[in-house]
Each structure stands twice: as C-alpha cells, then as structure tokens.
Amino acid sequence: MESFVSGLLLGLSLIIAIGAQNIWVLSQSMAGANRLAIALSCMLCDALLIMLGVYAATEVAQLLPDLMPYLTYGGVAMLLYLAFAAVKRAVNGSSGLNTQQVIKRSWQATALQAVAISLLNPHVYLDTVVLLGSIGAVQKTPVMFALGACLGSVLWFGSLTAFAPGLRRLLSSARRWRAFDATIAAILALMAWQLITLA
C-alpha cells in the first residue's frame, strides 16, 4: 500500500503541472470536444508508458544492480529541480490557463490528436519512463507503485475532461495555480526525500 500511495502522489504531482498536453486537454474539454475520447487516449498512453518505465527499470535493477544508485540519485536531482521550478512558478505567479480557439473534429480525429500530443511531448517520457520508472524500481512493490501512478493519471485526466466546462474561471486564475504549484513542490520534495531514504 505504501508503494501504491507513493506512485499515486508522485504521478499526480508530475502530471498536474500545467503543460502543453494539459492546456490542450482543457481547451478541448471546455469546448465539449469529444471529452471521453480525449480522456481515454491520454490515460492509455500514460498507463503504457508508466508500466514500460517501471518494468524496464526493474529489469535494469536485476541485470545491472550497480547502475541503480546512479538512476536513484538522478531521480532525486530531477525531483528537486521540478520542485524548485514549481516553487518559482508559485512565487512568480507564472502559471494559469490560457485557452486557445478550439476546432471540433470527429472523435477518431480527436483521439489521434490526443495520442500524438501525448507521445510527441518529450516531457512525458522524462516523467513516466525515466523518473517514474527509476523510482518505481526501488519500491518494495514496483507493480503497486506503477498502478498508483496509473490511477493518478486516470483521476487527473478524468477530472479534467469531466469537470472542464465548469472549471474555466477556476483554472484561469493564476492565484489558484500558485497554490497548486506550492502543493506540487511540497509533494515533489517529499518524494525526493523518500527516494534518498530508499537508496
């Protein structure tokens, strides 16, 4: 259960930080553009990458155990960097949502676009395959960690697409995103500390 909760918290903290994918999901969902197709496509992409990352890192840990401390400390450094970036956004108030003009397409075209935006975003590989994979490999139960991270993705994208039409005012507020970023920074720092204790 500890690994599951760690995966859930870390998965959420990484994915909540507003980026190109989330802005696209929100802008499409606020316009009511095939929200179910968007949610399922993003969830599936995340789940596949998270499972791939944790499985690959676990295999590396078994085949090349001497390499794991380097991966672990690399994960710590990345978490601290992301936490610092979140603190900077919270202090500067540089977050917030700026929606774009939405062109409604068929659900198939929207799903393909969601997959493309998910898989062509370099940050998704850094977050899911590299970071979540390396941290998951040192957990007591890597599979539960991966499942927790996948649940985080399901909760986030499910919430974004389900409640987006009513969230325009809330998510357009830089002040509220400053509070979100501060929370994200605290979670990332906590996960970095936990990872150090596992090393």
UniProtKB/TrEMBL annotation:
Coiled coil: none annotated. It is found in: Cell membrane. The keyword Disulfide bond does not apply. It is a multi-pass membrane protein. It holds the Pfam family LysE. Keywords: Cell membrane, Membrane, Transmembrane, Transmembrane helix. InterPro entries: LeuE-type. The chain crosses the membrane at residues 6-24, 36-58, 70-87, 107-125, 145-167, 179-196. This is LysE/ArgO family amino acid transporter. It comes from Rheinheimera aquimaris.
